[in-house]
Structure prediction request, 197 residues.
Amino acid sequence: MGQSNINLAALIGSRICHDLISPIGAINNGLELLGMSNGQTGPELDLISESVGNASARIRFFRIAYGAASAQPLGRAEVVSILSDSMDGGRLKAVYGPLDPQPRWAVRMAFLAVQCLETALPYGGRIEIACTDGTWDITGHSAKQSVDSSLWGLLKGEGVNELAPAHVQFALLPEVAADAQRKISTQLLPDRLTIRF
Prediction:
């Protein structure tokens, strides 16, 4: 996959997220109007509202991870909000360290790394995202891990015979890193997994 293909895939990702966020927002607005107009509440509306909130959060996350990236800065509050909303109610918690705005391309790489760690931490845990002097460390902490060596090999440039859609982040992150002239390194320890770029 060359640079032009990465850019095309990112534009497609941006387009899909952009087109989906509007109807999901409209559904959420409709639910709020239903609640205000006749005071309807109940488990059915709560379930719909929760599902819409989860879908909106994931689309915001995907828009950064799979959408077009640039040097445009993303503020801490926005990144923390996206991470918090997308992991709300899940087994994983993410802690975002950088205090200053960071370039969108770097946050994109961090989000792809977060997804790689999510795959390896199915029992839950804590993901810490740090950036020191331009070097990013995304570390997952958990006593229980499920590391697929062939997927993690992709991050080091090794090939894989077949890739499931749920694991596309493992193939995309090295390509995005190469475009950004960054090298990925990993550290796999019994209690923590780190992706550095």
